Each structure stands twice: as structure tokens, then as C-alpha cells.
């Protein structure tokens, strides 16, 4: 039925009167029809569900719990007054950011990976997860970006302290470390603002369970080809890979050849 509707849309557009906007309109109609016909109850194959259950539902949550414990211990130890220094301040900030990243990862991937295979956590999978995904996902990308640049900052701070000890007295201070941390968090938040508009929630009444279920879906904003090409592909490549690697590689190469 959906295929016939698309054929009816295209049959009333003579070839000599069509242009690019016509084809884009038809593509939007196809996408809209596909989104509306998608059922929240549709699951992937048993093999994929089992793989996600092992990797996400078991391993990710297991490692995540130990990661949270390790970060908590690190923050307690590094927060002692006798441990006050610029590097320890950055490490505390990195531990806090990584803690947030672990929590958001467990909410987005760990817990949702349990239901499709085991049948447990039905309410979380169909009630809670779809409504929090639109907020938790942007927060996770903010944490990811901040973690990358904080790791880079810690590495550069250690490089200056070891290779340029005289300059480290002015560059590696507690006050500058606070500025670095705040600047990284602000940059990470601004860079990931578009992520808040990438998702939407689809609702569906299921008579079998006598309840309304929900599932997260990509928004039309996320499906835009220009947005995908410029922001998701190129800007992500530049900001998350090229800039950090070049920032770390340049001091090492300059010290090696001088």
C-alpha cells in the first residue's frame, strides 16, 4: 500500500516539469511514510539481540560499575588538601566528566541492551528510555567531547611540566587549570547544542499489553543531508580527531627535531 501511494505521487509529475525540489519533496514523503509505518515493537534478529545483550547489557554495565567506583576513589584521593595542584585539579575534572559519560552510556546503551533478548526492563525500554534519550544523548556527546579535550589538556600539561619546567611555573598553575576546565566545558556544550534537536519520540498503542509504548526516532533535522555531511561527518572528524591529534603531535615533533 505504501509503495502504491509513492507511485501515485510520482505518476502525476511529468518528466519535463520536474526539478530537484520535486525529487526532494518525494524523498521527504517517503521518509515520512516510512517513519509513520515503523512499529516500536519491531526488534532485530535474535543473533543481534544476543550480541547487544552480551556487549551492552552485560559487559558495558559491568565495566561501567567498576569505572564509577574507580572514578569515585580517584576524586576522593585527589581532593585532599595536600594533593592540591594544577594537574590534580584537571584529573578531578576528567574523573567527573568520565563519570557522567559512563552514566549516560549505561542509560543509552547498557540498560536498553537488556530487554530485546531477555525480556526484562520492559517499562524502562518502552516508557523511560524513549523520553530521556533526547536529553541524555546530547549530554553524553558533551561529556565525550569534554573528555577528549581534557585528556589532551592533561597530556600537554605534563609535557610542559617535564620538557619546559621553567615555563611550567607560569603555565601550569591552579588558576590556569580552572580556566582550562571551564573553557573546555563551555566549548563542549556549545559544539553539541544541535544534538538536542536530533531526536523525537514516537508513541504507539499496543492492545496486546493494553498500554501505550514509546520509542526514540531520528528527527527530520537529523535526517537533513547537509547537516549530516557538514556537522556529523566533517566537524566531528575535525573537532574530535584532527584537532586533538595535531595538538598532541605538534609539541612532540617540534621537541624531537630541535
How is this structure best described in words?
By secondary structure, the protein is mainly alpha-helical. 75% of the residues lie in helices and 6% in strands. The protein is built from ten helices and two strands. It is elongated and about 70 Å long.
Secondary structure elements and pairings:
Blueprint: H1 2-11, H2 20-37, H3 46-78, H4 86-110, H5 115-118, H6 122-163, H7 165-171, H8 174-191, E1 199-206, E2 211-218, H9 220-223, H10 225-257
Antiparallel strand pairs: 1-2
Largest sheet: 2 strands, antiparallel
In DSSP terms (H or I, runs of 4 or more residues), the helix count works out at 10
Termini separation (Å)? 71 Å
Helix content: over 70%
User: How many DSSP E strands?
Assistant: 2
Instruction: Identify the strand order in the major beta sheet.
Output: 1-2
Radius of gyration: 24 Å
Q: Please tell me the overall pLDDT.
A: 85
- Could you say which overall geometry the principal axes of the C-alpha atoms support? elongated
Low-confidence stretches: 1-34
- Taken in chain order, the helices and strands follow as HHHHHHHHEEHH
Q: Which class of secondary structure composition applies to the elements?
A: mainly alpha
Strand content: 5-15%
Brief descriptors of the model:
mainly alpha; two-stranded antiparallel ribbon; 75% helix
How would you summarize what this structure contains?
The protein is mainly alpha-helical and 258 residues long. The chain is built from ten helices and two strands.
Amino acid at each position: 500500500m505504501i509503495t502504491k501511494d509513492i507511485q501515485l505521487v510520482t505518476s502525476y509529475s511529468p518528466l519535463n516539469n520536474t526539478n530537484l525540489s520535486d525529487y526532494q519533496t518525494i524523498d521527504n514523503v517517503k521518509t515520512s511514510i516510512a517513519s509513520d509505518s515503523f512499529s516500536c515493537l519491531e526488534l532485530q534478529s535474535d543473533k543481534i539481540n544476543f550480541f547487544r545483550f552480551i556487549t551492552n547489557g552485560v559487559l558495558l554495565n559491568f565495566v561501567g560499575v567498576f569505572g564509577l567506583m574507580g572514578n569515585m576513589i580517584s576524586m576522593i584521593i585527589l581532593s585532599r588538601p595536600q594533593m592540591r595542584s594544577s594537574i590534580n585539579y584537571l584529573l578531578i575534572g576528567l574523573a567527573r566528566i568520565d563519570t557522567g559519560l559512563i552514566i549516560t552510556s549505561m542509560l543509552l546503551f547498557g540498560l536498553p541492551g537488556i530487554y530485546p533478548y531477555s525480556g526484562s526492563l520492559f517499562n524502562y525500554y518502552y516508557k523511560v528510555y524513549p523520553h530521556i534519550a533526547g536529553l541524555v544523548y546530547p549530554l553524553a556527546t558533551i561529556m565525550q567531547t569534554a573528555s577528549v579535550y581534557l585528556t589532551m589538556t592533561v597530556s600537554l600539561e605534563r609535557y610542559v611540566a617535564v620538557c619546559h619546567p621553567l615555563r611550567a611555573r607560569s603555565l601550569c598553575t591552579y588558576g590556569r587549570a580552572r580556566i582550562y576546565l571551564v573553557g573546555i566545558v563551555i566549548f563542549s556544550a556549545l559544539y553539541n547544542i544541535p544534538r538536542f534537536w536530533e531526536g523525537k519520540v514516537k508513541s504507539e498503542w499496543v492492545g496486546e499489553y493494553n498500554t501505550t509504548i514509546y520509542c526514540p526516532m531520528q528527527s527530520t533535522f537529523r535526517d537533513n543531508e547537509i547537516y549530516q555531511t557538514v556537522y556529523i561527518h566533517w566537524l566531528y572528524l575535525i573537532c574530535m580527531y584532527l584537532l586533538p591529534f595535531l595538538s598532541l603531535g605538534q609539541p612532540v615533533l617540534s621537541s624531537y627535531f630541535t
